[in-house]
Design brief:
Helix content is 36%, strand content 16%. It is an alpha/beta fold. The relative contact order is 0.13.
């Protein structure tokens, strides 16, 4: 099977991320995933796992942990979502995306099992995310990975990844996000994230708001799971930064000191490193025979690469920064990072686009203290908010909008025309907007997908025990 054919086949599945073939709300439960993994020989139990949930920073923490483990000589799998440019980015081994031919072959290999599950018509239809999750587990088993770092897709309790038996569970900061699915308070969302906590398994937690921390601590206590709060477990001894050069950091943990030259910008990334070290120091039975050294952890953290997170993609004027900030907390972190690392840029032009399901004006509100000139746009993503609709919402929230562009290419052209030699051009509001600006500036050939318009898949109706057939073909 050719790679493009494989992608086309993958996208015939229920696509809750893009909402091109599924009604709201998504059909969340774990029975379907349990069946699929059982048919595949339980690949999720084949290698030791570090499981990571949270509202923000979880991708960065996953990348940091995986980089540190690889630096220690461990053959390390990494599963994250969404991707920036190509589906293969989601499944990595030692930092390298899965080969396209291997990706296509794996879809072909797993497809009969997917069809067998859907033929039962009892647990609903397999989703794109579930298929990719199963593929990651099978791939890590096939390449004999020593360990895997697995990022939760949404929430935690009912996420397709939540059948693993991790060596450590990690929870990054919990904030208001996906409120229609996870709940409208920090405590409710924290309860969903806490669903990844397993009996007796250490929990490494990033700094949390008091109501979120309380929920996480109580869940850990109920399950007799050691609760390791990163601000208490790992001390920050020194922090120095100069412009966009790597941040020089020194930490102290139970295994000793860590000296890190962190290429990721922003104080929030310092907390992500602290959380990653807390998780690495908590590794237990599955890793006790492995030689994990603090110096190698430091080297791995210093070598991390995680694009589109406060990333400078052009140094010459205008400086261009892309970031996936899409809610209030991540917008605040971006604002502080800009002040910390780009203080000499007094003029800011902001390309802003949003996706449904998030607070549409949160990032703009956080960045408003920088007095940016705002260009509103939309990404190719089917859930992207229409530019004129987004602009109207921003104006009602007293965010001044200078221009509206129908796509990211024209938005970048408009924004550049507004820039002077000291302008900082920022693209944010959605990881998909950040990715598309990155593609244009760095000349990356992206993967594009049709917005499928066939008959929508009905979500599983437990009272009728039926689910509709997936679209044509």
């Amino acid at each position: 099977m050719r790679y493009q054919d494989a992608i086309d086949r993958l996208l015939t599945l229920a696509d809750f991320e893009r909402k091109s073939r599924a009604h709201e709300p998504p059909d969340f439960h774990l029975q379907r995933m349990e069946l699929l993994l059982a048919k595949l020989g339980d690949p999720h139990l084949a290698v030791p796992v570090i499981h990571v949930a949270g509202s923000k920073g979880k991708g960065s923490v996953c990348a940091l942990i995986a980089s540190a483990l690889s630096a220690n000589g461990l053959h390390t799998g990494l599963y994250t979502s969404p991707h920036l440019h190509r589906f293969t980015e989601r499944i990595r081994v030692d930092g390298l995306p899965m080969d396209e031919n291997d990706f296509a072959a794996l879809i072909e290999k797993l497809w009969p099992e997917v069809e067998a599950i859907e033929a039962k018509r009892k647990v609903g239809v397999v989703s794109v995310f579930e298929m990719l999750t199963a593929m990651a587990f099978v791939h890590f088993r096939e390449v004999a990975a020593d360990c895997a770092v697995i990022e939760v897709g949404l929430g935690g309790r009912l996420d397709a990844t939540n059948l693993v038996k991790p060596e450590v569970s990690v929870i990054t900061p919990v904030s208001l996000d996906h409120v229609a699915v996870l709940g409208n308070t920090i405590a409710k969302i924290a309860a969903e994230k806490a669903g990844i906590v397993k009996p007796g398994t250490p929990v490494a937690s990033a700094p949390q708001r008091p109501d979120g921390e309380r929920v996480l601590r109580n869940k850990a206590e109920d399950l007799k799971a050691p609760f390791l709060y990163a601000p208490h477990a790992v001390r920050l001894l020194a922090s120095n930064h100069s412009g966009t050069a790597p941040q020089s950091l020194r930490f102290s943990g139970k295994r000793g000191e860590y000296h890190v030259r962190l290429p990721l910008l922003g104080e929030h990334q310092i907390e992500n490193v602290r959380t990653a070290i807390t998780a690495l120091e908590a590794l237990g039975k599955g890793f006790k025979e492995l030689d994990i050294r603090t110096s190698r952890i430091s080297a791995g953290l210093s070598a991390v690469s995680w694009p589109a997170r406060t990333e400078v993609i052009q140094q010459r004027a205008p400086t261009i920064l892309v970031d996936g900030a899409h809610n209030e907390d991540s917008g605040r972190a971006l604002m502080h990072a800009i002040r910390r690392h780009f203080g000499d840029h007094k003029d800011v032009v902001l390309i802003l686009g949003g996706t449904k399901g998030h607070d549409q004006t949160a990032v703009a509100r956080q960045l408003s203290s920088l007095n940016p000139r705002v260009v509103v746009t939309r990404s190719r993503h089917p859930k992207a908010i229409r530019p004129n609709e987004f602009a109207d919402v921003l104006k009602r929230d007293n965010v001044p909008v200078q221009a509206v562009s129908l796509d990211t290419a024209s938005a970048l052209e408009t924004a550049r025309s507004m820039c002077g030699p000291k302008t900082l051009l920022v693209a944010a509001g959605s990881l998909f907007v950040a990715a598309e600006i990155r593609e244009i500036v760095l000349k990356i050939d992206p993967e594009t997908y049709p917005d499928l318009k066939g008959p929508l898949t009905r979500t599983y109706d437990s009272s009728a025990n039926v689910s509709s057939k997936i679209g044509p073909g």
